[in-house]
Write a structure and sequence with these properties.
Layout lengths: L12 E3 L9 E3 L4 H6 L3 E5 L2 E6 L14 H16 L8 E10 L8 E11 L3 E11 L5 E13 L6
Antiparallel strand pairs: 1-2, 3-4, 4-6, 5-8, 6-7, 7-8
Length: 158
């Protein structure tokens, strides 16, 4: 899937046509909690699947840094995108999610996540990854590491 006009994962994705996320893709499904926390984006580059998120003031905790729940929601989105790195959208529910907070993030920081699908079986998918803060010079610093298990489910209509 090297064509920039081709979705990074086969399934329900819409390409962003303008703004700072132009060229990235957004999942077109309905997830009110995720939509309220994000928006989150995905694309495929020379290194594989990468997800993106730029936290806003709504994502901060009482200490003025990005709330762990916001980071974990982005990690859960990224878990599904990494699990689908083979090309097809993964439908299911998260049954386990492990997260380790490595450093903090601020509103406005560019956060990306990369990872690997460890195993994709008929009913369970195992994946892991890292959320990274990307500096203006492209340097990456880990913010959160995650791993999880997805239980495949039939696609729902909502």
């Amino acid at each position: 899937m090297s064509n920039a006009d081709e979705a990074p994962i086969r399934g329900g994705f819409e390409q962003v046509g303008q703004g700072s996320w132009s060229g990235w893709w957004k999942w077109a499904g309905n997830d009110p909690f995720e939509d309220g926390t994000g928006p989150f984006f995905v694309k495929r580059d020379e290194r594989g699947i990468v997800t993106g998120f730029r936290p806003e003031a709504k994502n901060l905790n009482g200490h003025g840094i990005v709330h762990g729940g916001s980071l974990m929601t982005f990690a859960d989105f990224s878990l599904f995108m990494v699990a689908a790195s083979g090309g097809d959208e993964v439908f299911g529910v998260t049954v386990t999610m492990n997260c380790e907070f490595v450093s903090g993030a601020q509103a406005g920081d560019l956060l990306t996540a990369r990872g690997e699908c460890v195993r994709a079986g008929g009913s369970l998918v195992f994946a892991r990854g890292t959320i990274l803060r990307v500096a203006a010079d492209g340097a990456e610093e880990p913010v959160l590491s995650f791993s999880g298990t997805i239980k495949r489910a039939k696609r729902t209509s909502h």
